[in-house]
Amino acid sequence: MSFSSTFQEIIASSSVISTQRLLSFRVPTVLCWTLLSLLLLGCSNYARNYTPPTLKDGAIRARNLLTVAQRRTFDGIYLEAMRQKYLGNADAAFDLLDRALMINPNDADALFQQGMLLLQSVGYSDSVLRLRGERQLQLAHQLSPSNKHYREMLGNYWTQAKRYERALRLYEQVAADDPTEDNLKMLEVLQERTSNWDAALQTLDRIALLEGYSNELIAKKTKILEMQNRISEAATMLREWSETNNGDNYPRVLLANLYLRNGYLERGREIIDDIAASDAHNEWVPMLRLIYYRIKDDAVSYDKTLGAIASDTLMPIEQKVQTFREAAAWLQEGKYDKEKIFQHAVVAMNQREAGGVMGEWLVGFLQDFKFPEDRLAVPALAIFRANPNDERAIMELIRDAVRREDAEQLDTISKRGRELHPENALFYYFGTLAARNKDDAARARAILEAGVKNMSPTTDSAVASQIYYMLGDAYMDKKLLKRAFAAYDSSIVKDPDNVHALNNYAYFLTTHGIQLRRAIKLAQRATEIEPHNPSYLDTYAWALYKAGKYAEAKGVIDSMWVAFALPDQEIQPDADYYDRAGDIYFKAGAKKEALRMWKEALQLTSDRKLQRKLRAKLKKMR
Predict the structure, then answer these.
(1) CA 4 → CA 11, 12, 13, 14, 158, distances in Å?
(2) Measuring CA to CA, how many Å separate 489 from each of 25, 496, 502?
(3) Which one-letter DSSP state was computed for residue 249?
(4) CB 3.0-4.6 Å disulfide test: which of 89, 198, 222, 229 passes with 84?
């Protein structure tokens, strides 16, 4: 075989090998490109159909971390907490929610419910607990930002707390999610509170899209434009609105008020006169005239107009009250007479169906401007006539009757109070005073027994003590000792420092020779409370005397005479004081003092029985 033939064979064989290798290389390559193209086609279809997963609220993620057993335990505790809440057991509900939050500290519902319980229970009084409640509401909202209820409740809380910036941020989202009329109105209020005037105007326009423009919306826009000192724009808007609502004078009223408030007095007066010419009974005209006269410092015309408003039977009572509020504001500037306001207010109050509302305003006016307390009876009577159930009016009329010593009114009003408010112990107290004043002991006792029957754990302890003490006296008058002593015991339980009960109980125990040690303690306590009361010192000395402690009794009776000698002492000694003092001095060995006491008693008394007793004592001294 030659070299050339050998070479050709080698070339031929290598060609076959190369062709085979090429074929073996191309098959996988084609398959790869085919698979890659299919993969890309599938990815493109997947991309078109892909929906990103929804991001779960933090509360849901937190719950998903719990075991099934933990979830069941949590749910049971939470449901029981809600049951206790709706039963009114707030403390139990709070404790159960604490247990639930130990299992899942990031449960939005539990945090929200416990936060609301905290805020409802402490209000604004406890800063630490209040802050905890606030944080829990905020955390609940952060954990569950899609919960509209949490957002709205937190916004309402910030509004009540007067943290308007925070409330505004939340209500912007509330109104965006649910642009109802109520939500938009709340948003507009918050924008006003935070001085976002342009935003407030835009919100009013959004409200108008829902319900159309109204006098109320126009008035709000006028107020905001005035706050921005855009008087010309406000005036133009009011004129256009007036033309749109031909026949309605209210837009012109707003325009006149705008001019008066911003120094355009004569323009305002012209509009007022024009309204009065077309509508003689327009209720706003007198109020606008008052503003005009006030700015002009015309007190005479102001007073005349206020009097006309007071006697106007057509003007709504709410507008009258507002008028008198503005008159009181002018009074604070020292430009008007409070007595004139009082007189005009009484006229307005006596108009038909005006007594209750006008009377309530007048009460506040009298208190704010430091009128004598007896003036309060005037509006109280008007309020009582308008609403005989008004407890405050009844109490004021009772105070007035006590001031004037009018037993008939005291009896009538306190009886009405007992009928309408049987739980109020004061009506039994004053009813008893009225019955006693009329010398009707049986009726007084019956009123007191009814008062005891209607007492509850919430009855004021001082008033309850007084009722029991007076009932004890009433039973003593009937010589019902057991009932009397039980009543005195109840009185002292209710108020251990009721000096009347302490003194009278001690006196009656002493005079009957019963429980003298206790009588001494009761009398001693009375003298500690009122050390310069001669009557209490007399009782204390007499209890010591009856217990055979003559030297101590003499020391106390000496203090009694010192108390009688005090310059501001209202109590004066009668024959009984001198008689008992004589007995005490006699047993203590001070016979000359005893003789002087009995002689003084004999001169003071006209009671024949006591006279005979005193003469017998003096005869033994000879």
Answers:
(1) 10, 12, 14, 15, 105
(2) 117, 10, 9
(3) -
(4) 89
Q: Are 257 and 234 in contact (CB under 8 A)?
A: no
pLDDT of amino acid 542: 96
At residue 534, the pLDDT reads 95
Neighbouring CB atoms inside 10 A of 577's CB total 23
| Segment 495-501 long-range contacts (CB within 8 Å, at least 24 positions apart) | 495/461, 495/462, 495/464, 495/465, 495/466, 496/525, 497/525, 497/529, 498/462, 498/465, 498/466, 498/469, 499/526, 499/529, 499/530, 499/533, 499/536, 500/466, 500/469, 501/465, 501/468, 501/469, 501/472
DSSP 294: H
**Is pLDDT above 80 for 282?**
yes
Structure tokens at 330: 């002018």
Res 40 pLDDT > 90? no
Look at residue 335 and tell me whether its pLDDT is greater than 80: no
Contact 315, 284 (CB under 8 A): no
Cα–Cα distance, 335 to 490 (Å, whole number)? 57
Residue range 305-320, pLDDT digits in tens: 999 989 888 888 888 8
Lowest mean pLDDT among 49-58, 271-280, 572-581: 49-58
pLDDT confidence of residue 555: 96
The angle subtended at Cα 568 by Cα 564 and Cα 572, nearest 5°, is 35
- In this structure, what token pair is assigned to residue 136? 């829990």
Q: Which two structure tokens, joined as six digits, stand for 424?
A: 């109020």
Q: Is the pLDDT of residue 5 over 90?
A: no
Residue 248 dihedral angles phi and psi, to the nearest 5°: -95, 115
Q: Which residue has the tokens 């990815």?
A: 43
* Model-wide pTM > 0.90: no
Going by C-beta distance under 8 Å and a sequence separation of 6 or more, which residues neighbour residue 456?
423
Q: Which of 416, 499, 497 is nearest to 461 (CA)?
A: 497
Between CA 299 and CA 568 the distance in angstroms is 48
What was the pLDDT predicted at 620?
84
CA neighbor of 183 nearest in space, from 193, 195, 194, 170: 170
CA distance 310 to 321: 10
CB-CB contact of 342 with 366 (8 Å): yes
Amino acid at 253: V
